[in-house]
Write a structure and sequence with these properties.
This protein is α+β, with helices and mostly antiparallel strands. It is built from two helices and eight strands. Helices cover about 15% and strands about 35% of the residues. The relative contact order is 0.25.
């Protein structure tokens, strides 16, 4: 069982070309943003950010769940424990991790189903 917080606002999953320049406006003042994630690969750049700061090419109707952390030490299976009940409930999920904790994006239209699945799995939703 893990404690999970629902972050405020709507998030976007964005795909940028490999040669794209990341604009500072994308993340703005970090004190105003709960989380931004940037990943590079040979196929392109992936950005997860608040929908209000997303580039034009984005999927913008995601809600972000965060494992309440920092966890303090490596914990095997935390992300799997979060994602597995969502998969069983057939809720799409985009998972990512930061140094201190794990996150899962779920479609905003499926948020109630996602939180119900997490509660059934024994997780506690905070906030």
């Amino acid at each position: 069982m893990v404690d999970v917080a629902l972050l405020p606002g709507v998030y976007a999953v964005c795909r940028l070309a490999t040669d794209a320049t990341l604009r500072p406006a994308l993340w703005g003042e970090l004190s105003d943003v709960e989380v931004v994630s940037v990943s590079w690969s040979a196929d392109g750049i992936s950005v997860i950010c608040p929908a209000s700061r997303a580039p034009a090419e984005a999927e913008t109707e995601w809600r972000c769940l965060r494992v309440v952390g920092p966890l303090g030490r490596p914990v095997t299976g935390t992300l799997a424990a979060l994602v597995a009940p969502l998969a069983e409930a057939r809720v799409n999920v985009v998972a990512f991790s930061t140094y201190d904790t794990d996150h899962a994006l779920v479609p905003a239209v499926r948020l109630d189903e996602a939180t119900a699945a997490l509660r059934r799995a024994g997780h506690r939703l905070l906030g």
